[in-house]
Amino acid sequence: MPPKTRTAQQKQSPAERARQRKRPVLKMTICDDQDVKTALEVARHTVRRLKAETADHPDDATVTVALAQAEQDLEAAQAAFDAEAYDLRFEALPRTDFEDLKKGHPPTEAQAEDGFAFNIDTFGPALVSAASLDGLTVDDAASFLDTWAENEAAALFNTAWSAQQENRTDVGKG
Predict the structure, then answer these.
(1) In 32, 89, 117, 160, which residue has its Cα 20 to 30 A from 69's Cα atom?
(2) How far is CA 5 from its chain centroid?
(3) Which residues lie across from 132 on neighbouring strands?
(4) Which value, in Å, is the radius of gyration of the alpha carbons in the chain?
(5) How confident is the model at residue 10 (pLDDT cuts 50, 70, 90)?
(6) Do 163 and 90 touch, CB atoms closer than 8 A?
């Protein structure tokens, strides 16, 4: 077996690699067409079911043909979803910027009594906007957080928040 060639990045020292790290980016995928979303879920479920059936009956040609058709249907459903859906992307802020943002939105007295470290009503839109890679303004974010369904608004905030909490490190190989 030939020796592995080292990539340019692997030839750099750990310190050099650490200096070149990019901040984490998370995305929230939105698809407003419920029929497209349902078709994709049904296609995924069908493929999973037929794969299990194929594993149980590997010599059954009918199941094998059905699985091949289901996989084609899944590709078509995925393509329809991809054409309809779009992503909102959020990048982790530099840590000091994130801390300053939290400090800039102190909790109300009631929120502080409830243990909040910042005012979620003003911090939420500010964080979504600051972390957005898609140009969402604070007004956009406030509008979305106020008018979207509760789970969707929570997902919007949580995606921006989670980008700040993303951990891409490990304690080591042991």
Answers:
(1) 32
(2) 33
(3) 90
(4) 23
(5) confident
(6) yes
Token representation of residue 1: 């077996």
Give the C-alpha separation, 145 to 147, whole Å. 6
Query: Does the structure show a pLDDT above 70 at 65?
Result: yes
Residue 70: Cβ-neighbour burial (10 angstroms; 0-12, 13-18, 19+): buried
Mean pLDDT calculated for residue range 73-85 = 97
Residue range 130-171, pLDDT digits in tens: 999 999 999 999 999 999 999 999 999 999 999 999 988 887
Structure tokens of 47? Answer: 């493929």
User: Which amino acid appears at position 152 of this protein?
Assistant: E
* pLDDT, tens only, 20-45: 999 999 999 999 999 999 999 999 99
Q: Quick one: CA dihedral 83, 138, 135, 103, positive or negative?
A: negative
Length of the chain: 174
**Dihedral angle, C-alpha 116, 117, 122, 123, nearest 10 °:** -120
